[in-house]
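Lab intake sheet, docking and co-folding queue.

SAMPLE TYPE: protein with bound small molecule
LIGAND NAME: adenosine-5'-triphosphate
LIGAND FORMAT: SMILES
REQUESTED OUTPUT: full 3D complex as structure tokens
PRIORITY: normal
SUBMITTED BY: R.K., bench team

The fields below were copied directly from the construct record.
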Amino acid sequence: MYLYLQPKEPPPLPEDARKGEAEPPGSPEKKEKNRKRKGKSSVSAEIVEGFSVFGCSESVSSVRNSSSGEADGSNTHSKEVAMAREIERASILRKKHGIHISGYNVPAPLESFEELSSRYGCKSKLLQNLSGLGFKEPTPIQRKAIPVLLSGRECFACAPTGSGKTLVFLFPILMKIKPRTKDGVKAVILCPMRELAAQTTRECKKLAKGRKFYIKLMTKELSRSGDFEKMHCDILVSTPLRLDFALRKRKLNLSRVEYLVLDESDKLFELGFVEQIDSVVKACSNPSIICSLFSATLPDSVEELARSIMHDAVRVIVGRKNSASELIKQKLVFAGSEKGKLLALRQSFAESLNPPVLLFVQSKERAKELYKELAFDDIKADVIHADLTQQQREDVVDNFRAGKTWVLIATDVISRGMDFKGINCVINYDFPESAAAYIHRIGRSGRAGRTGEAITFYTEEDKPFLRNIANVMAASGCEVPSWIMALPKLKRKKHRPKRDSISTLPEDNEE
Ligand SMILES: Nc1ncnc2c1ncn2[C@@H]1O[C@H](COP(=O)(O)OP(=O)(O)OP(=O)(O)O)[C@@H](O)[C@H]1O
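RESULT FIELD (auto-filled):
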């Protein structure tokens, strides 16, 4: 029985809520929580177009929050003029960057990172760190979702792979929590995979450079033998399994957590993780906690579940929901059979190999098989899958990052969130199991404004599933043959067929 993750029907909104003024719906506790949030409301705000899931209005208007003290209450006319300008400015920015939002009193988007200081009092050290990382302009999701979190609102954010969502949740945490207060964990970031948790911890440390935060990655050792009563930790990054283990066995106290982030939240809400997420959500019992959910793919079912843990959230979508980055040139290649795929791969590498290349297969067995095949070729290849030790997995990732490995063969353990700089090509050697898996896999290239390429092999067996991928391709402007678009639509069934093993050796029954 999951107390927190039971999806609830959206409560009907009172008439004045639709004007952005009513009491938020929910229990007295939630109301209290929302009252606190309202109090935190920041400088400039919009009330915008509503979507069904978070239940809000269809009217479009925008207000300048007078609590900023910028508007002169005695001069109604000039206040109205200023408000109108603000509405227009926010709307132009949103349109320019393809940002869609829903929610009440949504703060206006950032025009520049400098506004973090002028509007939200950001410390200069943090801003220096941003420019030190070469971040000059906020990306569209950063423009909109950072102010949402900074104004104390919960956020449900969907933006393309490689569009800078990590900064969206890290930066407000670093701005808002007090470092080294010694009264426990203040922020928890959950990631579905260990590699991603390690990467997020590293990014967090880079952004926090020069500020004295205790930032910890929940390693296996820590979850099994950490003394959490003595350990200092402001920001904790973990996979659900390790955090749940530490909660149960090591009596980790999360009651003072102010920020809970579910990165790659659609994956986190998949079966297998739900029980662990539920236990974490329960342990984060602070009524003022701010939850935020991020992914490049957020199906409606996840929005439904999100409603059970979020209150008064602002939904921010950049571009089209559940679509691939437009920076990736996508191609489908018919390889006929399993043998045909290996030949096609070798031929493609012989014609042009432009490393780094990431190659996805559907299982660890197949990853090992393909690695054996490519090891005979003159290609610096390596392999990563769940059978490797943690240290081995880290070494593989480091070697690929350092350019020592040209071709990395991988299962879906690194298909989400991993930020390898400048991957030129992603090859789906095995057809992805779903459109979401496809979007995340190919999203390892075409990041941070760079272009990339994605090639997907398919066999006769994969043909019935082509349409799902073709839809994603067409939506991001890639050419798709009309016969594929005419294939019947399949219900969202996962495609993981049993495939012939990867080998060029003749089979027993062949001559
Ligand atoms: N404002 C910015 N300017 C330039 N580069 C940026 C900016 N913000 C983030 N980046 C860089 O863009 C890359 C992708 O960022 P990030 O990993 O946060 O993407 P993401 O949206 O979380 O992707 P995914 O959905 O795959 O997890 C990183 O290398 C990051 O350093």
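REVIEWER NOTE: DSSP finds 18 helices and 16 strands in the chain.
SIGN-OFF: pending second check by T.M.
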